[in-house]
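pinging the channel bc i need a second pair of eyes. not urgent but kinda urgent?? the chain im working w is below, pasted from the shared doc
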Amino acid sequence: MLYPRARTAVTGLLTLVVLAGTAVGGGLVSLLPTTGLACPAPAARIVLDPGHGGEDPGAVNAPAALVERELVLAIAQRTARLLEEAGYSVALTRPDAAIGYANTPRGTIANLCHAMAYVSIHLNSFGEPDPNYAKTFWGIAEKDAGFATVMQAALVARLQPGTDLGDAGLEQLENGGLLTARMPAVLIEPVFLSNPEEAARLADPRGERLDAIAQAITDGVDAWVRAQGGGPLPVGVNSRPVRMQPTDRLLGPPRGSVAQILAFAPITGASRPDELRAYLVEVYRLVPQIGLDPAVVVAQSALETGWWQSEAWTAHLNPAGIGLTGPESASPSWTSGDDAARAQLVHLALYSVGPIPSQHLLAPYVGLDPRYDPALTAGRAGSARTIADLAGSWAADPHYAESIARVGSALLKSR
């Protein structure tokens, strides 16, 4: 794909070029089929659209010998395998590099499949080497924006750790496939083909980056479809709801995912959604290295902020009532969802593990927690092993643990 800032300026020109090529010599006819469209896999629930194809190579990184047309097909094929393993039926709009369509027929194919979700897969590119970020586009807000939010979170959560990948968020795009598809539809650009570090990862013969992109797409699709009540058939043992209990340990295997949580209906009304996405991504990035169960962390935040709609979150990005001792007390403030996540994790780690040593992963963030030293002085360090232990120490409410568990069970219900 083209670098987003250049996209609007050249869209009309590209359309003219394609039409001209068709009229003059038929060399681009394969890009503009108007008849004979059909669903490649009848009744497929998910349609994956590898962008470009045929005589349209998409972006090209010549020094790295990378062509978008081939790479997005490989990603789509990997994604299809993962989704099929999860129980979904999948169709690809093009099976090989030789076939290509204009955008609108791609959406038509998804409609003919009666799909539940449509994902058009692209890779970004720019004339300079530095840019590298994930971005998700939607066409019609009413049907696409929620899915786009979930997909963007899945891309960032899966692809950002250990790299310089940025989060460029969401943007509307008047793409024929997105506008024609009657189901939730997105166009994704997970990484930049023109970025040297990213190109090296994409070119690695082990295919780990391609697999990671495929897994991110699978995460987003699965979370979204399940949240709409349409998980794979048959429903497997891994799809059974998870119930959180007050006796659950704070330190434990990670449950849930960023995409799954963002797909949960009450979150659609959350304030400052971009900061919420950043908060969730940072929680899920850090917790595997700390040992905390991210589902408990997020359930506590959802409870304390009223599903991220309270003034504490809206005005201060306070993720978990930190420093709030009563309805009249002033809240400390954080400048970003990332910092909000780090502050809460520092505070919870102090309660669950003990003082944070200088070499600890969270050590650089201790200063973000204004209540770290007071909690340490009050003997809170290492005082909480389970959710139930937070009642009476983190919060005075005797039913605090039950409330966290109830919220957590709701968040995890689609699994």
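so The first strand starts at residue 46 and ends at 50. and Strands lie at 46-50, 60-61, 66-67, 90-92, 117-121, 133-138, 166-172, 185-189. — does that match what u expected or am i reading it wrong
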